[in-house]
Every structure is written in structure tokens, then in C-alpha cells.
Design a protein that fits this description.
mainly alpha; flat; 3 helices
């Protein structure tokens, strides 16, 4: 039974990694999402160039990391 859940979790994790990789490749090709997943505003191009996998603006990323650190 535990093996079944482990396999499901592994497949989900791999699927998420694959989706993230496709997103990064699209961004590098200039076709990716340019809006922040937190506030919906445009992610500055300098941030997108520096961190192609960024899905949040700096402010929203800081808030996300802070909440994550608190376990929220």
C-alpha cells in the first residue's frame, strides 16, 4: 500500500518537474508567462532574464518565501 502512494507521489513530482521545465524553455524562447503568479503584474524583464524560471515578481517572491518559512 505504501508503495502505491510512493509511486503516485513520484509520478506527480515528475509531472510537476516536467511542466516547470517546459515553462522555463518557453520563457527562454520568449514565449513564457510574463505576469506574476502572485499579483498579476508584469514580471520585470531584468528579473526574467536573471531568473528565467521566476513565476513571481521580487515582492511576491519575498512574501511567498516568508510565508513558506513560517509554514503558512
Amino acid at each position: 500500500m505504501d508503495e502505491k502512494y510512493f509511486e503516485q507521489a513520484s509520478r506527480l513530482e515528475q509531472s510537476q518537474r516536467d511542466a516547470r521545465l517546459r515553462d522555463v524553455q518557453a520563457r527562454l524562447a520568449g514565449k513564457g508567462q510574463a505576469d506574476c503568479a502572485g499579483c498579476g503584474e508584469a514580471i520585470p524583464s531584468a528579473r526574467r532574464l536573471a531568473v528565467p524560471s521566476a513565476i513571481r515578481c521580487v515582492s511576491c517572491e519575498q512574501n511567498f518565501e516568508f510565508k513558506k518559512g513560517l509554514g503558512l
